[in-house]
Records
---
Amino acid sequence: MTEQILTQHIIEVVYLIASALFILSLRWMSSPTTARRGVLAGEIGMLLAICGTLLHHDIVDYKWIAAALVLGTIIGIPLGKVAMTAVPQRTALSHAFGALCVTLVGTAEFYLQSPNISKFTMTVLSMEIILGGLTFTGSLMAAGKLQEILPQRPITYKGQNVVTLSVLAVAIGIAGYLVMHPGATYLFPLLIFIPLIFGVMLVVPIGGADMPTVISLLNAYAGLSAAAMGFVLNNKLLIIAGALDGSSGLILSVIMSKAMNRSFTNVVFGAFGQVAAAATGMQEERTVRSATPEEAASILAAANKVVIVPGYGMAVAQAQHKVRELYDALTKKGVEVKFAIHPVAGRMPGHMNVLLAEADIPYDRLIEMDDINGDFPQTDVALIIGANDVTNPAARTDQSSPIFGMPILDVDKSHTVMVIKRSMNPGFAGIDNPLYYDDKTLMLFGDAKAFVGSIVRELTGGSGH
Amino acid sequence: MPSNLVDSLFIFMLAGFIGFEVIKRVSPLLHTPLMSLTNALDAIAVVGAIVLAGEHKSTFATVLGTIAVVAATVNIVGGFIITDRMLKMFKSSSRPAK
């Protein structure tokens, strides 16, 4: 018996150390110079916690645990090695895995403890199941949309919000009944099933452009469900990790919705794409100026300051490495080159930075929107590659525009604007960009990768590559 | 409310505030690796799943626990690997790594 108590104490101390390591891990993520140390701290904390748990006196059989750890590792390794463009869907998928774990443990705990469950425990257990279930299917839907297995367009129908909210209300009602009557095990399958449906209904109407917010929100839910599980199991390490993950997801959601000038409720219930489609009605013949790679190269070579604005289109065209060559060629000529990163460039928070870092572009050249907007009036050339809405001046001026009020990169304040684009077709969101008709704008029509390649060839003397 | 639940609520609140303060300071540059890291850390739920898979209270609980351990381990292994892969790529121009 005393040995058991001793083991229990050892586990508690190990969990305490792991909690501290987790907090330090996130603390060290504040800067790229210490971030890898942060990962190491997290790994050590995780390893300690798992080893400590294996000492637990209730564990009588290790073979399933061992098999599960091995199988999880076998699946986990390839998921850790996906391409950088696939990181958003990998992240969504991992939210689903996390939620699955939490939901399964919650389900097992209910059947083990029922009907002797206190009201408080049943309340947090219901939260665990509801949040876990909706995060599981919601994340699978998000991953499907990001992987383009599912249509990225928002799928909507009349009265959708009422139906969706009613489904959630039913789940909460069942949870309430179970809190009062924890012996009503026949209701429990519904408590699992309904949130699974709700998760699908929640994400289906959300369009591809809103994915950064959705992923962040699902991240917050995954964290909160884990924290709820910590309450159920009375495990403080779990509560702490869940709270950290939950607050991280919440902060990122707030940053993402601010960057799109939209509220949570608007993202979840707004079905963005529809409004946008309605706004493309006006057809006007306006002239644009276009330029060849040679002309573009000579303008860039004559500039002192160039700001490159990359968007997800650049990643789709796989042009990152050509952009890196352009950066090298211009830097060699003494041109100062910076990259302007809009918070929603890419498909999840910070995604564009990762894509550019992968192409070996130094991170101190990647400047956030708020820090670079002041630089545009002194910028000779702003070169836009695969970005559209985040540069659209209509967001500042045109009250009727669906993106009015969204913070944008003030590229139109630079001396010359160059836009690499396949054609004049409006982008995915279908919003016309007045920037393209501006007198100081030069349209560079073509494939981003090929066009940047041609500019680089001009700059490096026509011979190279 | 039993006192250990009150303790848990205090811990949740404090951890939430620490989370906000610490994560607010993370550079937007690293938001993607931040999310994959918190995802890996969140998979600490594995500790609950391990006990469930090993305690043999019912076959049902063991099966669910085992699947839960698999799911969490996927996140731990995959999450740490991809976070480190991403962070390795971030290089400064003044101090080129390699």
---
Amino acid sequence: MFKTIWKKMIGLGLVAMLSATALVGCSSETTTENKTDNKKEQAAETTLDKIKERGKLVVGVKYDLNLFGLKNPQTGEVEGFDIDIAKGLAKKILGDENKIELKEVTSKTRIPMLNNGEIDAIIATMTITEERKKEVDFSDVYFMAGQSLLVKKDSNINGIADVNKEGVTVLTAKGSTSAQNIRAKAPKATVLEFENYAEAFTALKAGQGDALTTDNALLFGMAKQDPNFRVVDETFSEEPYGIAVRKGDKELLDVINEYLKEIKANGEYDKIYEKWIGEKPKQ
Amino acid sequence: MLDYSILIDHWDVYMQGFANTLKASVLALIGSLAIGTVMAVFRIAPIRPLNWIGAAYVEFIRNIPLILIVFVFFVGLPAIGIRFDSFTAGTLGLTVYTAAFIAEVIRAGILAVPKGQMEAARSSGLTYLQAMWYIILPQAVKIVIPPMGNQFINLVKNSSVLGVIAGLDLMYFGDLISSETFVTFDVYIFVALFYLLLTIPLSLGVGALERRLAKSR
């Protein structure tokens, strides 16, 4: 008896929740339609207005990525390249770099969180791809990542051409796209794959290979940890990072692009780059 | 059903892994048998310092995880200028590790040979080493065939540790195929079958040897 009542109640609850989400989905769709369809700017609030109204910018950042967005276990503060870019943006919009709220995102959660309004923008090492452009709008490139090589400081390897030789051993992690890329681009080299990048780096330190390959963003972190190693300048795959906003958030996107131009012109960008990456950005 | 296309498409890779696993196993088997026998005799020989060396070897090595011993050869020794490639480092680690267990097996076998055998051999004019080699060890070997077979089978399976240091064995290539095809189950089933291809004949061989030697006893 009780069981059936419970079942009914749970069923009713589910139906209510489903219809609620369906309604919310519909309403948000219509507002974005309004925004894009009506050429004339309506009184409808833009994201930029909302940010100014609430007096703080909400940005989705990574909490677990060295150099870009990493929660410092001692201070509890999130720090990194992306964070400094985000703070600068808050200063640009609101005049104070502390008027910002950082929310943790992962590669999986960032687009849903942006689209349901939890965050205003994503600054989380997000590669600009055609696929993603269908779901969000991207700013100009704010960091050019790409697959590169980590080598000993005195190594004479300076690019992919130098590893595409017999007898050269390149280390990477099992099952990574980096492994597939290096096999395609340096077919003559021996590629050894390890359980993860930490182990591959250990093997490199022990002289078990001539270079380690993966995204330069990761390699910079390793080079920073052990100054006996350097990242070669050349990247042989391009992964441009962009700041993402909701589709149609043109005002906000314009401000972001203006901000990126500004900091690149006034040297602020170079300062942030050098602070985290350890060297000046190459042109 | 198993997806045989994985086996067919990656046949060369499986074969390379299988060949290297076989090679590592055979080399480690011979090496560990040699080191193990020496260490067993060390532990029993009537010379104190040798006893200590034998005991230290066995207690030290067998109480450390295999993977750490392999890491010592792969990334530890290079720090002092001795560098082995991943296959050699893995095989050496496996040899040193298995030798500790084999030493114990052989020691048990030697102790199981009645004391009178050694006394008789010595009073016949043989030296300690001669008595050990000609009289004691042949009898000990017969006693230890079953536990020794166990150690050899473990050795073949333990050779999968090479996969962790990119030692180009079955396990390593299994990992690569699996990450390339995004198939896990089938890929490792074939890996398991290849291991069985090595361990089952080994098992049967040990069994046959045991029966033959039992007759002669």
